[in-house]
Structure to design on (338 residues):
């Protein structure tokens, strides 16, 4: 989540049926069963409680193991009936202005899912049921690190089903109001992101990373969401940021960072935007293989990019993943702050 101003960077929605995913094994012939990766879920159930960043509502989430091919699903435990189950995929995006919100046709929603989604996909958890007793995932400290910790504490086990991924075959891009987001073919999954803000504490800064479990945990997971102090009154007038504080967000006032202890990284703002993008791209419903590039991108552009990719059958294929598919393109590297 990143509530970095109130500019509208939305894109036109795409009607996408993710059930149209192909079952091709990829264009490189037969795959050895010994090299195939297996789907993964949690070994045990684990819970945490916290305040929603925008709603200010205290909620409890429980991460529970799920059967093969379940994917990541949210279950609103405070709502009776099957309608309270919301799959975390791009078909269910209901809002993406200041965070990513998914919902069902009955109007049940879960907000600010991106940090949790980023942690799960980066830790290579394919199947999990997220039970939540309110409308928003807890903010915790504003980063994905607490969710990585929960996942590690629960443990991860392989399942008796092949792990499948969406491989990008050709460039796909979306843009709006000077912001851009694109996906390109590439081995493994890599990301680069550039932010550009007039606030002197942020300015223009970039990061670049080959995303693995190790690199995400070390280099991205602790990057926190942030906001500009001048935007807070506007957001609260809109009924947003009601649970925001210096405990769960970096607050910027011109050249100053108001949090005790300052920043966790010199380019923490760019790193958090990369984290957000990983969480949004997880709504493809499968791990992505390719390279993502973002320039001032937003949740709306990121989720719009997923929809644009899935809407073009020539732009992707679903493959059975092997160990080779996880080999990164380059040595993980972060650009210095600009």
């Amino acid at each position: 989540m990143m509530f970095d101003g109130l500019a509208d960077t939305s894109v036109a929605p795409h009607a996408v049926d993710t059930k149209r995913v192909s079952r091709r094994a990829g264009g490189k012939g037969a795959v050895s069963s010994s090299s195939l990766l297996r789907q993964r879920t949690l070994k045990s159930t684990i819970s945490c409680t916290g305040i929603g960043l925008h709603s200010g509502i205290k909620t409890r989430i429980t991460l529970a193991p799920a059967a093969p091919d379940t994917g990541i699903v949210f279950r609103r435990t405070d709502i009776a009936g099957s309608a309270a189950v919301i799959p975390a995929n791009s078909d269910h995006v209901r809002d993406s202005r200041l965070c990513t919100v998914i919902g069902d046709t009955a109007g049940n929603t879960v907000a600010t899912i991106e940090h949790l989604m980023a942690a799960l996909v980066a830790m290579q958890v394919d199947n999990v049921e997220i039970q939540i007793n309110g409308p928003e995932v807890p903010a915790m400290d504003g980063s994905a690190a607490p969710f990585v910790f929960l996942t590690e504490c629960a443990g991860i086990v392989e399942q008796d089903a092949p792990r499948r991924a969406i491989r990008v075959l050709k460039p796909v891009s979306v843009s709006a109001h000077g912001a851009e987001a694109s996906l390109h073919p590439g081995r493994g999954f890599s990301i680069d992101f550039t932010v550009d803000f007039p606030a002197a504490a942020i300015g223009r800064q970039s990061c670049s990373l080959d995303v693995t479990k190790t690199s995400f945990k070390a280099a991205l997971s602790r990057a926190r969401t942030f906001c500009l102090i001048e935007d807070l009154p506007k957001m609260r007038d809109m009924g947003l940021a009601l649970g925001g504080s210096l405990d769960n967000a970096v607050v910027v006032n011109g050249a100053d960072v108001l949090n005790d202890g300052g920043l966790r990284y010199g380019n923490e703002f760019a790193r958090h935007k990369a984290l957000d993008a990983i969480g949004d791209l997880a709504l493809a419903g499968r791990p992505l293989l390719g390279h993502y590039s973002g320039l001032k991108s937003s949740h709306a552009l990121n989720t719009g990019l997923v929809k644009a990719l899935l809407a073009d059958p020539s732009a992707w294929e679903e493959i059975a993943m092997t160990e080779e598919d996880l080999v990164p393109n380059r040595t993980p590297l972060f650009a210095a702050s600009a």
Summary: Residues 2-29, 331-338 have pLDDT under 50 and may be disordered. The chain has six helices and 20 strands.
